[in-house]
Structures are given as structure tokens and as C-alpha cells.
Amino acid sequence: MQTSVLFDLPAAAPPAPAAKRPAPVHVDRTWYADIDRVTYLGTPDPSWLARPEFGEDCIPLCVSRQRLDGRKTLPRAVTPWMLDSGAFTELSERGRWTTTPRAYAATARRYCDEIGLMDHCAIQDWMTEEEVLARTGLTVWDHQLKTVASYLNLLTLDAELPWMPVLQGFTLDEYLRCADLYERAGVDLTLEPVVGLGSVCRRQGTKEAVRIIETLWSMGIRLHGFGVKVTGLRNGASHLLYSSDSMAWSKNAMYRESMPGCTHKSCSSCPRYARAWRNQMLNSLPEDQQLLTLTA
Fold it and tell me: In this structure, is the dihedral angle defined by the CA atoms of residues 22, 23, 25 and 29, taken in order, positive or negative?
């Protein structure tokens, strides 16, 4: 009888990790068009509000409420900024707003007074993505009513704060219905400095999103795009947005090398990287599109 001998094959070498792409080269803005002033850079660290380089270049920042909550001392802003309410996190994780309108208004007032230079303050809106609706158990109509009610409540509590009303929906007809709710409540959205466009950040560049932006723009509503990506700015009707904000640079940094001179492994929280990314992105946009963003 022959005895079979089993031999272990040598284990295959693990695949080499893919080389990361180089970090963006830090370049100055070639010129300052209107889009530069209204493209808010999302920041993971509120201390950026006091960093002199952002003030020198007048780079507007967007800071989430969750980043500021619980801080005893606050930075003093040297550049304009907007407060994001953190609505998606609140609703997707908890299924409801756990902060009352009175508490939210008081918090926003503190941030406005102690930090200064606040451009806009997003309301406690209710987005209408499917996963959020599944979490809350409510309908698009319910979320629209609650969104409009939030604006009215916050305006009643502190009319001096720069509240940003938000339009919510999924289809064009639903956004128009939401605009009608504001009108029936006595709010003329065409007179507002800027109006947030909710629940479209994941649909940037789609035909439906383009149709929604074009229609609302034609009504004279100055729209703010939440979480706009580079492709969203370059394609579709995003050039019709009055303003936008983005944290896309942070995710971009995860897949690229660190900036020259940086000692951290990833520049996903690096102000140098964020500025370089923003400058590179703005310089890549056609000049006529930059002007259209605000003046069209």
C-alpha cells in the first residue's frame, strides 16, 4: 500500500497595497470670482474658524453643530462661516430631533455671539431620503410640514439670527409643494438671502436633480447646495446654485498621499490639504461657470 504524502503549497504573497495618488499641489487662487466667496469649506475642527490663513484668504467655512456642542470656550472667527444643524446625523441615528427648538435657538445664539461672523444658520430640517424615512416612520409630507414648522418656530424664538429655510422633497412636484407650504405660511422664499436644497446631495448631476435646481432657480429662489461634490459643481445645473458647502476633500485625502511636510499618516483632517483641494477645485472650473453661480 502506498502512503500519500500531502505537501502544503506556499501561501500566496498578499497583494501589494495600491499606491496612493499624490496630494494636490497647493496653488493660489488665480482670481477671485463670486463662487469663491460662496463655496463653504466643510471643517472637522471648529478651531479652524480662528486660523489666520482662512481669514487672510477669506475662505468661508461650514461647521456642524455636533462639532461645537459641549465646548465651554469657542473660537473667535476670522472668516465668515455657516452652521450646519447636523440634521442627517440626528434623524438617521435617532429617528427624531432630540434637541428642542428653544434649546437649538439658544445654542445658535451663543455661537453667533461668541464666535461671530455667522453667515447662515441651518434650521432643524427633516430630510426625505428613503433610509431616513424608514428610521422616522413618517412620510415625505410629514417631513415637509416639520421642516417648515422648524423655520417658523426658530424665527419666532430668535428673529435676529440668520436662519436658512430649507426645501425638502424627492420629486420636483414635492419640492414645489414644500415651497407652497412656505408661501401659505407667509414666507416669500425669493426674499430670503439663501434657501437650502435638501435631499439632493446623493443625486447630483442626475436629470431629476438638474430639473429641480433649474425650476427653483427660475422661480427666483437663491439655493444653497448641501454637501456638493466636485462632479456636482462641474456637471448638471449646479452652477445655478447661489452657494454650496463640501467636506469631500476629507474623503479625497484618505486615498492620497499626505501633503509634503505633513507628519500625519492621512491629511483627512489637515487644513493645508483642505485649502489646497479647494483652490485646485475652484481653479478647475470654467470662468463663466464661476460667475454664473452667483450672478445668473
Answer: positive
